[in-house]
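Bench notes, afternoon.
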Amino acid sequence: MTEVSKRVVYIEDEPEMVELVQIILGRAGFEVAGAGSGLDGLQLARREPPDLVLLDLMLPDMDGWQVYRELRADESLKHIPVIVITAKSQSIDMVLGLHVADVDDYISKPFSAQELVKRAERVIAQQAAGKEQA
């Protein structure tokens, strides 16, 4: 029996970035669905809850932090790990993301393919380990 691929929702308004991440993570066995806006991403995550959400902070309809708060407020989605992927690479943004908002990881653009795969796998593994302990 083959292993089920991990589902990822990538909320990003740049189609080229979504395509790039689909290629990178697809080669590592992930299934990546893209959403071009915060509202579309929330609807997609609610319709088919993923194993991981990748979230850009600069979106056309609502900012990424607002999307993150909505994910955490939803009982069916609050357990899903979130990695912020953004061009906002100033240290204050990273501190806000990791320590104030408590996202699972924060990746600055540009990033390497290996870094993305490694971090996605690590965050999903940590989530799975947490479920086993609960």
